[in-house]
Design a protein that fits this description.
It is built from four helices and four strands, in the order ββααααββ. It is mainly alpha-helical. It folds into two domains: 153 residues, Methane Monooxygenase Hydroxylase, Chain G, domain 1 (Up-down Bundle), CATH 1.20.58.300; 26 residues, no CATH class. Helix 1 packs parallel to helix 4 and helix 2 packs across helix 3. It starts with 7 loop residues before the first strand and ends in a 7-residue tail after the last strand.
Length: 191
């Protein structure tokens, strides 16, 4: 047994202690981890493009970017599920019976080979950072667009006098209340 593995002690059915650990992760594991990171970075680049097109008001390109974002998000979901299943399988091989998905990656760090510990810890920090950054930026874009839509809706309501709280700021030259309906009120000047 390679003594450089992280060793975890468990009691077997005879209450004897046995030691389980993982060997170094194969290149296929790291390729899957790198693929997941690349997908998140790709989504980050799409958000850069999206913001540029939002500022330029290019709806056609925004539709294209939205389709790419959706496809990338689906790929991320699929890759994350596969990666999680791989880690879950490895943890079960180490004797872990109950696996909480939210803490699975932290738990996995405890079982990984010493040679891979630093690499996995760096990957995990970078993965969490890019994921949080992308999630926050996407949320900011959505909130900004919602604010713009609300502002536009309010402006249209004011100018078309359909907004109940939009008591005219244009009286006496704009719209004012006459009876129950909003009617135009014009200022009359004598020349």
């Amino acid at each position: 047994m390679n003594t450089q593995h992280n060793e975890t002690t468990y009691n077997n059915y005879n209450n004897q202690q046995i030691r389980l650990s993982l060997p170094p992760m194969p290149p296929s594991f790291w390729r899957k981890a790198d693929e997941l990171m690349e997908l998140w970075m790709g989504l980050s680049m799409l958000l850069d493009q999206e913001w540029k097109q939002i500022k330029q008001n290019d709806l056609l390109k925004l539709w294209e970017i939205q389709a790419k974002k959706r496809k990338t998000a689906e790929m991320i979901d699929l890759t994350e599920r596969r990666f999680s299943m791989t880690i879950e399988t490895l943890l079960k091989a180490c004797g872990v019976k109950e696996i909480d998905r939210t803490g699975m990656l932290e738990l996995f760090k405890q079982y990984i080979d010493h040679a891979d510990t630093d690499r996995f810890a760096r990957w995990l920090v970078n993965y969490r950072m890019i994921k949080q950054e992308v999630t926050d930026r996407n949320r900011r874009h959505a909130l900004w667009l919602e604010d713009q839509a609300r502002i536009t809706k309010d402006l249209v309501a004011i100018f078309t006098s359909r907004h109940r709280d939009a008591k005219s700021t244009y009286v006496p030259v704009g719209y004012g209340r006459v009876g129950q309906r909003m009617q135009p009120v014009y200022k009359k000047e004598v020349v």
